[in-house]
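We give the chain.
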Amino acid sequence: MKTTIPAVDLDEWHTASAERRREIAEGLDEALRETGMFLLDGHGVPKELMDEFRSRGREFFALPREVKAPYSIEAAYDSGWLEMHPGGGVGVPLAEGEEAPSAPDLHESFYVGPAHGTGNAYLDTYCYPANRWPEELPALREAAEKYTAHMVRVAHEVNAILATVLGLPEDFFNSRATKATWTQNASWYPSLRSVGRLESGQLRNGPHTDLGTVTLLSRQAGVGGLQAWNEADGWFSPPYSPDSLIVNLGDLMELWTDGRWRALKHRVLAPSPSAPDEELLSLVFFFESDPRTLIEPLAEPIGGGAGLGPVVSRQSVLGKLGVDLDLADTVS
């Protein structure tokens, strides 16, 4: 079997007849049951803005370590710089059934999040931490803020489509994401020539699923690029389109649909000797929901009947990163 990853065009979706929407929804539902990803076209994110954010991100990663160090991430809920070594921050847990690698992933990242400060110190620390913008590169902040404004918009449009596919009210997910937690990463994958030799089994990003509801990815094509996994085909390279975003589902959406849809298991291959100068920069937007949202698995026939238990959104995400969070007495 060869996996089919559908492409959904937002412009077409908004103008499609009821019959055409049903066709799109059926193909999308099948792909999300099997793999957990699709391509998104017609998203309205200007290419020049993607290019600008990438360019400013590369400028940051090219700075000397001593300049980047003051922005280092120290906890799973921080914004800032994630360094490329074992002590350089916190990582996403490995996917179920995957063995721990013997060497660190070959990437470094810069993280930003929403400016939803509430005045509640506990809530803001763990859900809406202050962004740490490099004073040396004011253009990075400008590019990131313009780009993430589009990402929030697109995430809400994707949420509305997903709700429609499930036969739910269009605002089902968005009504629970008015002040959603999210993280925008610029993730840089250096070339083989710059990192030297590879350790056994070392990857640019090890096998994992994302922790939130949906992820929006602007990627670059590469020999050492993205791979996805499903039970039918194992690991495979998804289609690449320079103008498309990839949408993949995270753990919270798999739970919310009670296993009807799967969180995408994916990885990024190691840099290849066949392309020793290849370096890539991905823009990755991880969207969740309002932090105190009680995510209760949908009952059959909408839900998949896996018998999963309810979770509180932000507690689930940070719990998987080793952070014990209690939002019971906070105000969202």
Notes: The first strand starts at residue 7 and ends at 9. The chain has a mean pLDDT of 91. The two ends are 46 Å apart (CA to CA).
